[in-house]
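Intended use. Records like the one below are meant for learning the mapping from a protein sequence to its folded structure. Do not use them to infer anything beyond what is encoded.
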Amino acid sequence: MSQFFQIHPDNPQGRLIQQAVEIINQSGVIAYPTDSAYALGCRIGDKSALERIRRLRKLDAKHNFTVMCRDLSELAIYAKVDNTVYRLLKHATPGPYTFILKATSEVPRRLLHPKRRTIGLRVPDNIITLALLEALREPMMSVTLIMPGEDYPMTDPYDIRERLEHEVDLVIDGGYCELEPTTVVDLVEDVPVIRREGKGDIQSFV
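Structure written out for the chain above:
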């Protein structure tokens, strides 16, 4: 049976944030709000939690997870970022974007695209998520909470609790989230490529 925390979206309760981090550190899987849709998350590098998310979402080994970072300096630990890319990232973060970048050796191999050695990273504009990452003091592995056979992510934390109460360790109620996923921007080559148009404005990249 999962726990259910109602966390204030503008002023997160520190006690609940710390309890959530303890669950993550104990190989837990959480459902949590972001600045786009609700997501599933776990500790970076946690193989058993990662496999639980794969089974829940029915994802194959080729599906790319996102590394959810608290700021640009943390993102730069896990991705190769030159000056041009840094300026683009600085303009667009925090925000509802997932950036595909060349990974550094800090990224667990199981998270990498098998052929391109790339990784998706983002810095969310959500106070609850940023509070979790700050307390965790490292990124989370994350994937949008879209259930198998469905086209859109779940948006209602009470529906999430009812459906996933035996599948995840914690559901964080941070209010309703939107249906739109992030905009995915590929920054591996010299020219940005929009891989998916979502919530984030693409004008900075075209």
